[in-house]
Design goal:
Oligomer: single chain
CATH topology of one domain: N-terminal domain of TfIIb
Distance between the termini: 63 Å
Helix content: 40-55%
Strand content: 5-15%
Number of helices: 17
Number of strands: 8
Shape: elongated
Largest sheet: 8 strands, mixed
CATH architecture of one domain: Single Sheet
Order of helices and strands: HHHHHHHHHHHEEEEEHHEEHEHHH
DNA sequence: CGGCTTTGACCAGCGC
DNA sequence: GCGCTGGTCAAAGCCG
């Protein structure tokens, strides 16, 4: 009966493999361990699955109601049936639902009657029957659980990819929306340069790139980044007074900009515009800092990183590590990882640059989030006090429903957006946001119901309970115009958010559920949060490798 | 053996 | 000019 089963009942393979496959602190090949894509079934094009997420369950429900109908609301297309058709054991309840996809001969319904008739030893009729029945009933339940587990793993996998896809789509669409909003709000300020650009570029690049995003592959990430770039530039030109643009150009001009691959696209689109090069340099300088609670030495964001340096930073006993992306030769993306001086459970990861190569699905969440955040920052706020846009307007434009998600640090030398994922979630906060505008709802063909919650804790193949300190925080969108440096600024931020009572798993789940259900604006930050959660607690003792330098 | 980490050295920017 | 600091380089060693 167990022949052909690749699953075990001891644990959820999705999550267990995630942990065991986590090779080391720095490399975590995306798509493998992060999403667990290779561990179970053949990875199909998950984006074609019109799965209703409302039918999914979390671990608790899975454990307590294994015999209940797991997918009353789950609609599997016909081409999905071979996913389960080779199973030799059928749960009685499943016969009704899967009879359309399995031949009748394959419906080996294990009932008590079947078990009785199968018994051949007549001498054990008295006491042996009951024990045999118990035994075979136990086996039957085991088979049911295995069946259940297998189906739910497949379901989990679909949802994982779906969330990643939605996250990327949302980031791109949201940036485009912000661009349009700002254009509408400030039509008189549109300068000649913008008009000239649009005249010379009658075919808007952004819609095309949004179309590109529909490809559920790494190309989507590329397109998302491109959108971030283009929207950033567009808003830089249209939403900022020209004098500020020039000021920004002069300040951010840097020789480092020559090797920035993703900007080649932008250069093609806007060839001959000197402002583009400066914007590229600005993109190089813009930073997105992610604060997350994690015991791991580095958060797992789906990319491959190589450590190229470590230094002691002023004011922090913990060393700062420097990493560069090694997923492609010449990728300009770098990141700094440092623990918070005050709360060493907080890991501060600062990203800089944009990838110039396709990203695996696991890396797209973080990449698109950081790209969007960087674009947001660069388009709306700059370090110079006289060049600042209306921060409140920007805040509402960027995060209309969740106005406390990101801290924009315009402090010198680099503009930085901090996504603070360390705060305790307040479920009420997530429930309060107004219903999202219809244009925020990413349409999924064949997906009539909104993204449902119980699946969320495993959405990246990782249960939240692995790091009960990881939280979906409210990000605080405030315009800080201090003159402190990045590190000092981050330390200041750490004081402003006293730790709250750690939420229960249920609270976290419900908060995240409400967030993603009621407020699609959380999607990007949520992806980042989940990414940070992935690494939490996996290396409990690995944070002490303080190789002090200098 | 290739890729990675470690770590001292080097460089640039900035303030005094 | 000097010192401080952040960031990077590159040689040496480690590891699978």
């Amino acid at each position: 009966m167990g022949k052909g089963w690749g699953l075990t009942l001891d644990s959820d393979p999705v999550t267990s493999n995630l942990f065991t496959n986590k090779s080391n602190s720095t490399t975590n090949v995306a798509g493998g361990s992060f999403l667990g894509l290779k561990q179970h079934h053949h990875h199909r094009d998950m984006f074609q699955f019109p799965v209703s997420l409302a039918g999914s369950r979390d671990d608790d429900r899975r454990g307590t109601s294994a015999s209940s109908s797991p997918s009353d609301d789950t609609k599997l297309p016909v081409d999905e049936v071979d996913f389960f058709s080779d199973k030799k054991v059928r749960v009685v309840d499943d016969v009704k639902k899967e009879s359309i996809e399995a031949p009748a001969s394959d419906l080996d319904v294990n009932t008590g009657l079947l078990l009785l008739t199968a018994g051949s030893d007549q001498s054990t009729v008295d006491d042996g029957v009951s024990s045999d029945m118990e035994d075979k009933r136990a086996k039957n339940e085991l088979a049911q659980l295995q069946d259940e587990l297998k189906r739910m793993n497949a379901e989990n996998q679909k949802l994982k990819d779906m969330l990643s896809h939605v996250s990327n789509n949302y980031s791109a669409l949201h940036m485009h929306l912000v661009t349009l909003m700002q254009q509408q709000q400030q039509p008189p300020q549109r300068n000649r340069e913008t008009q000239a650009i649009q005249e010379s570029k009658p075919e808007e690049a952004t819609p095309l790139q949004i179309l590109d995003l529909r490809r559920p592959s790494a190309a989507g990430a590329e397109a998302a980044e491109t959108i971030s770039h283009s929207s950033s530039e567009e808003r830089t030109r249209s939403g900022t007074p020209p004098s500020n643009v020039e000021k920004r150009v002069n300040r951010e001009e840097s020789p480092e900009s020559e090797s920035w691959g993703p900007n080649c696209k932008v250069q093609k689109l806007n060839s001959g515009k000197p402002v583009d090069q400066s914007t590229e340099a600005t993109m190089r300088k813009a930073r997105v800092s992610v604060r997350a609670r994690s015991e791991a030495p580095m958060i797992t964001d789906g990319c491959q990183w190589r450590k190229y340096g470590q230094k002691m930073a002023k004011g922090n006993p913990c060393p700062r590590a420097y990493y560069r992306c090694t997923m492609a030769v010449g990728c300009p993306v770098r990141k700094q990882v440092q623990r918070c001086a005050d709360d060493r459970t907080i890991l501060i990861t600062t990203y800089e640059g944009n990838h110039n190569h396709p990203l695996p699905p696991a890396a797209m969440a973080m990449a698109s989030t950081t790209a969007a955040a960087a674009s947001m920052l660069l388009s709306g706020s700059m370090p110079s006090a006289d060049g600042i846009m209306n921060p409140n307007l920007l805040a509402r434009a960027i995060l209309p429903c969740s106005s406390s998600m990101a801290t924009i640090s315009a402090s010198a030398p680099f503009p930085t957006v901090t996504l603070d994922l360390t705060h305790s979630p307040n479920p009420l906060q997530f429930q309060r946001p107004p219903p999202p505008p219809t244009q925020f709802q990413v349409p999924f063909p064949g997906q009539p119901t909104p993204v449902s919650s119980p699946q969320l804790p495993q959405v990246f193949g990782q249960p939240l309970y692995n790091n009960n300190q990881s939280k979906f925080s409210g990000l605080q969108l405030s315009q800080e115009m201090g003159s402190s440096q990045l590190g000092h600024h981050q330390q200041k931020q750490q004081h402003q958010a006293p730790p709250q009572q750690p939420p229960t798993l249920a609270d976290t789940v419900s908060a995240a559920t409400a967030a993603i259900t009621n407020d699609p604006n959380f999607t990007a930050a949520l992806a980042a949060a989940i990414s940070s959660i992935i690494s939490g607690g996996t290396h409990p003792n690995s944070s002490n490798n303080n190789n002090n330098r200098q």
